[in-house]
Design brief:
Length: 153
């Protein structure tokens, strides 16, 4: 949060100084470029913090692993430290279906956003758009429920 706020303040000040020196006119960094620069700066800060910041304690990672059972090769060290056998991990690994997880992510986003915009269009009386969004909400919500049932059986 500090990195994105700092980047936004710096871009704001650069634009303010540029406009003052030019005697008005357009800002030096447009809004769309400012957004991309802010995201880039924030991402660089996150990656640097992940590599150079303090490591999470192993007991915390073990407790998280036992509760959530995340999959992927990056968790093998924690799985072994938690005392979970290869057979037990293989049994849990049958639920590791990345395409199905991605479908769940996409349908979850579609459900939330279509429901949100459907409500807004209903409030503004745009019934045609609200109907289309209601259909999107119903279809994506149904797919989300189907996906969750397949992943969590």
């Amino acid at each position: 949060m500090i990195s994105s706020f700092s980047a936004s303040v710096v871009i704001f000040l650069i634009n303010k100084v540029h406009i003052a020196q030019a005697g008005g006119g357009l800002p030096l960094i447009s809004t769309d470029k400012a957004l991309v620069l802010t995201v880039l700066c924030t991402t660089v800060c996150w990656v640097l913090t992940a590599y150079f910041g303090p490591q999470t304690e192993l007991q915390t990672l073990i407790a998280f692993y036992r509760k959530v059972r995340p999959f992927g090769p990056g968790w093998e060290y924690v799985r072994k430290a938690a005392g979970i056998s290869d057979e037990e991990a293989a049994e849990a690994g049958r639920r590791e279906n990345i395409p199905l997880c991605l479908l769940g992510w996409v349908t979850g986003c579609a459900t939330i956003w279509s429901g949100l915009f459907m409500t807004g269009n209903l409030l503004y009386g745009r019934l045609h758009y609200a109907g289309i969004l209601a259909a999107t909400f119903a279809i994506s919500g149904g797919l989300l429920i189907w996906t969750i049932r397949r992943l969590w059986k």
